[in-house]
Amino acid sequence: MRTIDWVNGAVEIIDQTALPNEERVLRLHTVGELIAAIQSLAVRGAPALGVAGAFGVALAARVHSDDPAALSVAVRKIESARPTAVNLARGARRAAALLPHGPEAVLAEACRVRDEEIEASAAMARLGADLVAELCGNRPRLLTHCNTGGLAAVTIGTALGVVGELHQRGLLAGVIASETRPLLQGARLTSWELTRWGIEHRVAVDSAGPFLMARGEVDAVILGADRICANGDVINKIGTYAHALGARRAGIPFLVVAPESTVDVGTPSGAQVEIEDRGSAEVTAWSEAVNPAFDITPYDLVTAIVTDRRVIRVDRGERP
Predict the structure, then answer these.
(1) Which of 22, 44, 66, 87 could form a Cys-Cys staple with 50, CB 3.0–4.6 A?
(2) Do 150 and 265 reside in the same domain of the chain?
(3) How far apart are CA 182 and CA 238, in angstroms?
(4) HSE toward the beta carbon, residue 18, CA cutoff 13 A
């Protein structure tokens, strides 16, 4: 199952806002429709957003091929549809670099972005499973946060891909999926994917994670990233930092699994990253709220970062 793809002249996505109650496919024909899907989180997850950005430029190239000014505006809108994840702008820029060669060249590059993310997921699953087995032994109990499966990465996934690989090897005892407030990506999406894979799991409220670690019910925390800075700081869904602190206190590994395309060596640290605030309406209808969508986990709380090309042992002084 591909959660985002190019099909007969349009971008097709699984609408993540409808899950788990309905498996709905959206066909996006315009840049405006694609941007709306990105901003509403109908498509989300760093690798999937990179593919969405590239396909968005392919849509723009077809509609505005004879209007360079309109095309430039469309590309900028795609790049900035969500500011925190590096993959969206990176995917859009890769496809935009082919604009001088025409719409078909742009589409071909966008499809390459998609195919590379699929290959990256398979590589991360293998490398990450090897690392978890090395650090935790057989049949670990893992805690994950947000959603990092195929929904976030076209197929297989990042951190959840590692979980799936361990399950296939018979080396997994179980999973705790953190709810991921306020939109419940863990309770809705991760639980849905784990159920489809036949993986035993429980859902826990976000604030329970550190206590469950302290009580000895978790052997490692494994999650994804929307951006990894040059110093190893990890930008990921809000709540990640708390889990990192809990893991450090409990003395268990804190593992980040994300494709090489998420590593942003041009950003020195998390201090330079714009953290998206999604507004009060997602949290409450009767008062003002602070609603940061992401947080920054300092590199010194990270055990290791797994990409599709390498394992970076941050705990041993290695940096991206």
Answers:
(1) 87
(2) yes
(3) 9
(4) 9
Tokens linked to 224: 């994804």
- 23 by DSSP, 3-state: which? coil
pLDDT less than 70: residues of the chain: none
Residues 299 and 187 in one domain: yes
Strand order in the sheet with 304-306: 201-204, 174-178, 141-144, 220-223, 254-257, 304-306, 311-312
Residue that finishes a domain, picked among 84, 116, 148:
116
Active-site residue 67, yes or no? Answer: no
- Residue 85: what pLDDT? 82
42 and 161 housed in the same domain:
no
Kindly state whether residues 287 and 242 are assigned to the same domain.
yes
For the four alpha carbons of 87, 184, 275 and 125, in that order, the dihedral sign comes to: negative
Q: Which amino acid is at 155?
A: T
Q: Give the Cα separation of 252 and 48 in Å (integer).
A: 29
Q: What local confidence, expressed as pLDDT, does residue 223 receive?
A: 98
Total number of residues shown for the chain: 320
Token pair in block for residue 93: 């820029």
Q: Which of 69, 94, 116 corresponds to the end of one domain?
A: 116
The pLDDT value given to residue 66: 85
Whole-number pLDDT of residue 270:
98
| Catalytic, out of 5, 206, 219, 226 | 226
Coil, strand or helix: which one is 17? Answer: coil
- The per-residue pLDDT for 285 is 84
Amino acid at 36: A
SS3 100: helix
**Domain residue limits at 195:** 122-316
Q: 10 Å Cβ neighbour count for 212?
A: 18
Q: Do both 172 and 140 map to the same domain?
A: yes
Q: In the chain, how many domains are there?
A: 2
Residues 84 and 128 in one domain: no
